[in-house]
Amino acid sequence: MNWSENVTLWVIGCIIILLLLAWIIRRVIGRGQRIRSEANPRKITIKDIDKMEDGSEFELYLYHLFEELGYDEVHKTTSSRDFGADLVFVDRLGRRSVIQAKRYGANHPVGLSAVQEIYTSMRYYEADRSIVLTSARYTEACRTLAAVNGVKLLDREDLMELILLFKARRVEEALELIEEDDHEPIETWQSRRKRQSR
Fold it and tell me: What SS3 class is residue 87?
């Protein structure tokens, strides 16, 4: 074999390897996109949620998750004119609950507006409870406003636990996580004024 034949074989070999790598990468990326588009709670992980392009994919995932958990009357609201709620469902005690889903980056905190919006949506949906569920964390002000108004907050750690419980078929524990009331101590404006005036 002469030098030009060696170079030709080497180039052809490199092209074949590059095409094979491109095919493998495309399959891996396509699988992740396919899993997210199906919104299958049995397949989706927190990493898939972090890669979701917008909140509507997260809302669809939660819709399927809550159906799989066995909740009654799970409804996904329309994107426009949702009045602050993304999901509506009835829990085991017969309480209608509204959820606002916030798919944010792990380091992007959810602020006051989420609590304000979900709390005010309760009247429109005739709900007994309100929940904000995020893939991130909450600001301290958000936690305070939620506690004062009885809005349940489920953060990234809760979401990861919910995913783990669901996949482990520990449905009862997953339902408890969603349905239990928060019992965080509340310091209201009035109690803070009284404490400062002493």
Answer: strand
Per the listing, tokens 């600001």 go with 139
Write down the pTM of the prediction. Answer: 0.77
Q: How confident is the model at residue 39 (pLDDT cuts 50, 70, 90)?
A: confident
pLDDT tens-digit series, residues 167-181:
999 999 999 999 998
Q: Which pLDDT does position 180 carry in this prediction? A: 92
- How far is the C-alpha of 10 from the C-alpha of 158, rounded, in Å? 53
Burial class of 186 by CB neighbour count within 10 A (0 to 12, 13 to 18, 19+): middle
Check: CB of residue 117 under 8 Å from CB of residue 147. no
Q: Which residues contact 32 (CB under 8 A, 6 or more apart)?
A: 48, 51
The residues pairing with 97 across neighbouring beta strands, listed in sequence order, are 89, 129
What angle (nearest 5°) sits at the alpha carbon of residue 181, between those of residues 175 and 187? Answer: 150
Residue 189: pLDDT band by 50, 70, 90 thresholds? confident
What contacts 24+ positions apart, CB below 8 Å, involve 118-122?
A: 118/84, 118/85, 118/151, 119/149, 119/151, 120/83, 120/84, 121/82, 121/83, 121/84, 121/85, 122/98
